[in-house]
Automatic annotation (TrEMBL):
Organism field: Bradyrhizobium betae
Membrane-spanning intervals of the chain: 22-40, 76-95
Localization (cell): Cell membrane
Protein name (Swiss-Prot/TrEMBL): DUF421 domain-containing protein
Membrane topology term: Multi-pass membrane protein
Signal peptide (from-to): none
Taxonomic classification: Bacteria, Pseudomonadati, Pseudomonadota, Alphaproteobacteria, Hyphomicrobiales
Record-linked InterPro entries: DUF421, UPF0702_alpha/beta_dom_sf
Database matches in Pfam families: DUF421 (PF04239)
Record GO cellular component, one term: plasma membrane
Length: 165
């Protein structure tokens, strides 16, 4: 005979302190955020570090809650809510506090000035010359000499101010 009884208490009752889960989620979010911000560079046209962090941590937190490693859905939901809260809080703070905005979204960096490629800035952001030329072609520019200024923006996109012809 099949047994359809479920251990409801094990599914929903937390086995760890909910405060502990909040603290762990907060520390992990900021720890990984800082590591990613220090180690990773902007990717041309890529998504931002907080976006990647959100997806990775949400997937892990949700998986643990579903797989039973935390032993309860409640603990998984607390971690997911903590991660979403900090992601929204950082976005909000980035909008309202200039210092936080600089941490979350790096300022634009000049790559071309009056037709001259600033190779040191390319190296700093790990942008190859081929990558830069590709982005210029997408903007309808044949050569860096045809550019007044080009910047890599905080989100990784390259903006180009063309010379008048």
């Amino acid at each position: 005979m099949l047994n359809f009884e479920l251990p409801w208490h094990e599914i929903f009752a937390p086995t760890h302190s909910l405060l502990e889960m909040l603290v762990r989620g907060t520390i992990m979010y900021f720890g990984i955020f800082i590591l990613m911000r220090l180690i990773l560079k902007r990717q041309t046209g890529g998504i931002s570090i907080p976006d990647v962090l959100l997806v990775v941590l949400l997937a892990d937190a949700a998986q643990n809650g579903m797989a039973g490693e935390y032993r309860s859905i409640t603990e998984g939901l607390v971690l997911v809510a903590t991660i979403i809260f900090w992601n929204l809080a950082i976005d909000w703070l980035g909008y309202h506090v200039p210092f936080v905005e600089r941490l979350v979204r790096p300022p634009p960096l000049l790559l071309i000035k009056n037709g001259k490629v600033l190779r040191r800035h390319l190296r700093q952001e790990l942008v190859t010359m081929d990558e830069l030329l590709s982005k210029l072609r997408e903007e309808g520019v044949d050569s860096p000499a045809d550019v007044i200024e080009a910047y890599i923006e905080g989100d990784g996109n390259i903006s180009v101010k063309k010379k008048e012809k």
